[in-house]
Design brief:
Blueprint lengths: L3 E9 L6 H9 L17 E7 L2 E7 L9 H16 L2 E7 L10 H13 L5 E6 L9 H12 L4 E4 L8 H11 L2 E2 L13 H16 L9 E8 L6 E8 L2 H8 L4 H18 L4 E8 L7 H6 L22
Parallel strand pairs: 1-3, 1-4, 4-5, 5-6, 9-10
Antiparallel strand pairs: 1-7, 2-3, 8-9
The structure holds guanosine-5'-triphosphate.
Length: 319
């Protein structure tokens, strides 16, 4: 039997550098949610890629950032843990149209944290969004600066969006994985329960449909997942921080929520390969992300199950 390279790979980096886009591109399926808002990813999402000679088990971590709330502290913790647990860390950074020729202060701090948390774990640097750079020679100074700042196992410029350089990322990571038996069946894509993905798909569409002020206070919870009928019925609550956010999210005559619902439904149907019915309620739950209770109820503490405990329906907007 041929030896397989098998192991866990943590994708780590600042918010919004393109970690979820990279994961989705490598997997060829859209699991992690993507939006233009920083801190879109709040949980570690496991995606599995099986090749004839390797199995990559990816952890997509929330972007590391300065903690401003309990939720932020939780995300930092998750990300550091992922780096510590993984066989290989892929450190993702991104460049602007005119790349600054050094290592950003924040990246330098993060790399220090990774080295402290897991000094022996090999780290591959991925410089994403190079499609934005017209003069590619500007990347040389960036690569040099990063190479001097940290003992990376490899440095790979890519464009996750355009699927450029992905094979090279995979081949560099593969070299660093231990030899082992596969951890998952070859057709496994993720270990996340379907209900988690459904809640994430709805949250993704909300982030896309709303502006700056709404997204950080949004949590989506599956209240009921009923597969007994011909068409599965999924009921979800969207928790927002303020009455004003609810107004924005619902939109004039429910137009925004309707759009969110039908786009999310299309993704769920594509994933499940069948028709589904989504019912979404918007509820005002001020400051849920500031208390342990709130985080637990939204599924951010104590497992990834996004099913809510029973609670009163305080503010409803059935679609
Ligand atoms: N131009 C360009 N944009 C990209 C590329 N990769 C990702 N983006 C964009 O960057 C934004 C952030 O991408 P995400 O994949 O959500 O970033 P992330 O690092 O997972 O973000 P967090 O969830 O906040 O940690 C989105 O608007 C993407 O479309 C790329 O290769 N080129």
């Amino acid at each position: 039997m041929p030896h397989l390279r098998v192991g866990t790979v943590a994708l780590v980096g600042r918010p919004n550098v393109g970690k979820s886009t990279l994961l989705n591109a490598m997997l060829g399926e859209r699991i992690a949610i993507v939006s233009h808002h920083p801190q879109t990813t709040r949980d570690r999402i496991l995606g599995v890629l099986t090749q004839p000679d390797a199995q990559f088990v990816f952890l997509d971590t929330p972007g590391l950032h300065a903690a401003k709330s309990k939720l932020g502290a939780r995300m930092n913790h998750e990300a550091r843990e992922a780096a510590r647990d993984a066989d290989v860390v892929v450190f993702v950074t991104s460049v602007g149209v005119e790349p600054a020729p050094g290592v950003g202060r924040f990246d330098a701090a993060l790399l220090g944290q990774i080295r402290d948390a897991s000094p022996k774990t090999p780290v591959v640097l991925v410089i994403n969004k190079v499609d934005r750079v017209a003069d590619k020679s500007a990347l040389i100074a960036v690569l040099q600066a990063y190479a001097e700042a940290f003992p990376f196992a490899a440095l790979v410029p890519i464009s996750a969006k355009k699927h450029d350089g992905l094979e090279r990322v995979l081949s560099e990571v593969k070299k660093l994985l231990p030899e082992d038996q596969p951890l998952y069946e070859a057709d496994t894509l993720t270990d996340r329960p379907l209900r988690f993905l459904v809640a994430e798909f709805v949250r993704e569409q909300i982030l896309r449909a709303t502006r700056e002020e709404v997204p950080h206070g949004v949590a989506v919870v599956v209240d009921r997942f009923d597969e007994s009928g011909k068409v599965p019925k999924i009921e979800l609550s969207v928790h927002v921080d303020r009455e004003g956010h609810k107004k924005i999210l619902v939109g004039k005559q429910g137009a925004v929520l309707k759009e969110v619902g039908s786009r999310a439904r299309a993704r769920v149907e594509a994933l499940m390969g069948r028709q589904v019915h989504l019912a979404i309620w918007v509820r005002v739950t001020p400051g849920w992300y500031e208390s342990d209770r709130g985080l637990r109820e939204m599924g951010y503490i104590g497992g990834a199950d996004t099913t809510a405990p029973e609670r009163g329906r305080d503010s409803e907007d059935p679609r």
